[in-house]
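input
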Amino acid sequence: MNKRKQVFLLGAGFSKAINPAYPLMNELCTDIREQLELGNDTISAHYKTEIPENIKNNVEHLLTYLSTDFPWKQENNYTDRALYERISRMIGQHFQQLDKNGEHNNLFDRLIAGFLENPHCDIITLNYDVLIEKAMEKYVKNNGQPYLPWERLYSYPLSW
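output
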């Protein structure tokens, strides 16, 4: 029997289909910026005075900037790393508050089940998060499967 290949392409905004309360990137950026602007500690002061204005409205660019060892940033590297950690925690807390009960849409369960049960199914995501991996771990645990087939997750060799 000739099986048809199924491919699910998850683009920007896909998380909204999982939980309508999840923010789009611009909404998340606004929330993060507002929190940092209101802070009155050393890390918030570093954000307000040392971070270029042109990257403050894009949390992806901001995190990249903070995690990159540019030669001109040597004296701020530790503060940049502290700010990176703070923003990462803020993002995690933001999503945990929105999903207090750990619920997610039935659509996601069906997507994960389809992938795990069908070797002719691929999921491609354009997002930077690990939402797919975390959902698969949860699905496997909740459905009594012995393990997550990690070898199927990344058919393209990853480099660190």
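quick obs: The radius of gyration is 19 Å.
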